[in-house]
Design goal:
CATH superfamily of the largest domain: Cupredoxins -  blue copper proteins
Structural class: mainly beta
Keywords: Metal-binding, Oxidoreductase
Radius of gyration: 20 Å
Largest sheet: 7 strands, mixed
Number of domains: 3
Distance between the termini: 32 Å
Bound molecules: CU-O-CU linkage, copper (II) ion
Domain Plastocyanin-like: 13-128, 176-248, 315-430
Strand content: 35-45%
Organism: Streptomyces albipurpureus
Protein name: Multicopper oxidase domain-containing protein
Strand order of the largest sheet: 12-11-10-14-19-16-17
InterPro entries: Cu-oxidase-like_N, Cu-oxidase_2nd, Cu-oxidase_C, Cu-oxidase_fam, Cu_oxidase_Cu_BS, Cupredoxin
CATH topology of the largest domain: Immunoglobulin-like
Helix content: under 10%
Shape: globular
CATH class of the largest domain: Mainly Beta
């Protein structure tokens, strides 16, 4: 902590190695360690500063996914940190409690950098959420669940056969928080899982092996208005969901990803991993469980606009590899928005490959999916939304950060192979 109360975090980007399976060393990258990064945590109203040191052999960046902050601090492709250099962004946290994350964003190299292990969670709290009866003991009954798919060739994490690479890399198995075959013993009746799809391309449809239902309490940008009963939650790369699951003494259940639909054709589905069934995390309940208070019936008030005060509508057509037929150019700003105004963005996946859509700096409300009310799991603050083949989503967002005509924010497909190919654009707030 600095004299003015600023919370300071140190992150060193470093290379290392890890034995994912006994006796086999794999080259990895991490923050403050061999692989992945620490969970950072701050409270609404906090001033934060992160001192980033890049000890890798190449330049990279650190982007705060989901964070509302000045464009210069965003860690996008314009805030490169050279090998050997340091970068110290600072901002004031001004958004609701949420499970955010951080990862590199060097243009054309993001997929590799994330795959090698540069990713971590950034949790935000606020006064209202601190008072809710939700499981909140970090690592005890409130667990980060960062899901990534991997295939090892023995030595490298970014192993890729490069064959039929339409959506990007699809690993053969998953790891949670960097661990293969993960299990967790829990000793509370209610356990909160902060699910983060930190994979580069894979879409998961999470649920439990015994098909039990669970309660979804938060989307990307924070708590839902009310708890939502679900038995599946689909997350595309970059998306988060917080779920609360009820356990019985001594039982075991497994969080899995199930085959799911929403693809253009059976062929596309197969190619994009839609037929895959994957084990994610086993939960093992202790023989006696601490009783948990009942979940609250109201959670939060959404702060995302509802579209009624949008000053303009814009169209974004997703076609490989660009957006509206144009590929990302570092020196071209694609659009300018006015500070303090809300806009409606219509995003259409114009072909058969799955995509999603992520906007920096803001949280948005999904107004419509194909002209209809969005499914309940999308009725919260979002910064990334799945856009299935031949699907249109309508999003409302407000740009209320500081104006800066010289520093663009990004919007892009978060299937990182597509992002790297140029399915990304830039906007400035003036
Ligand atoms: Cu999670 Cu522009 O990224
Ligand atoms: Cu982002
Ligand atoms: Cu895409």
């Amino acid at each position: 902590v600095e004299a003015d109360g600023t919370k300071v975090f140190d992150l060193t980007m470093q290379s290392g190695q890890k034995e994912f399976t006994a006796g086999k060393k794999t080259r990895t990258w991490g923050f403050n360690g061999d692989h992945l990064g620490p969970t950072l945590r701050a409270q609404r109203g906090d001033k934060v500063k992160v001192r980033i040191r890049n000890t890798l052999g190449e330049a990279s960046t650190v982007h705060w996914h989901g964070m509302h902050l000045p464009a210069k601090m965003d860690g996008g492709p314009h805030q490169m940190v050279a090998s050997g250099a340091t970068w110290s962004p600072r901002w004031t946290v001004d958004q609701p409690a949420a499970s955010l994350w951080y990862h590199p964003h060097p243009h054309g190299r993001t997929e590799k950098h994330v795959q090698r292990g540069l990713a971590g969670m950034f949790l935000l709290d606020d006064d209202a959420s601190n008072r809710l009866a939700l499981p909140r003991e970090y690592g005890i009954n409130d667990l980060p669940v960062m899901v990534q798919d991997v295939t090892f060739d023995g030595a490298e994490l970014d192993f890729d056969r490069g064959f039929l690479r339409d959506t990007g890399f699809l690993g053969e198995r998953t790891m949670v928080n960097g661990t293969l075959n993960p299990y967790r013993t829990v000793s509370d009746e209610l356990v909160r899982l902060r699910l983060l799809n930190a994979s580069t391309a894979r879409i998961y449809d999470f649920g439990f092996s015994d098909d039990r239902s669970f309660t979804m309490v938060a989307t990307d940008g924070g708590l839902l208005e009310k708890p939502l009963r679900q038995d599946r939650v689909k997350l595309s790369p970059g998306e988060r969901a917080e779920i609360v699951v009820r356990m019985k003494p001594g039982e075991r259940t497994e969080l899995r990803s199930f085959p799911h639909g929403g693809y253009g054709s059976a062929w596309e589905k197969r190619l994009a991993g839609g037929d895959d069934s994957l084990s994610v995390l086993q939960l093992r309940a202790a023989n006696t469980l601490r009783p948990s208070p009942a979940l609250p019936s109201e959670l939060a008030t959404l702060e995302v606009p509802d579209g009624s005060d949008s000053v303009r509508e814009r169209y974004f057509g997703l076609t490989t590899p660009g957006i509206n037929g144009r590929e990302m150019k570092m020196d071209r700003v694609d659009l300018t928005v006015t500070r303090g105004t809300a806009e409606t963005w219509v995003v259409r996946n114009e072909h058969g490959t799955p995509h999603n859509f992520h906007v920096h700096d803001v949280q948005f409300r999904v107004l419509e999916v194909n002209g209809k009310e969005p499914p309940p799991q999308l009725r919260g603050a979002k910064d990334t939304v799945y856009v299935a083949p031949n699907t249109t989503v309508k999003l409302a967002m407000r740009f209320d950060g500081p104006a800066d005509p010289n520093s663009p924010y990004m919007y892009h497909c978060h299937l990182l192979y597509h992002e790297d190919l140029g399915m990304m654009g830039q906007f400035v707030v003036v």
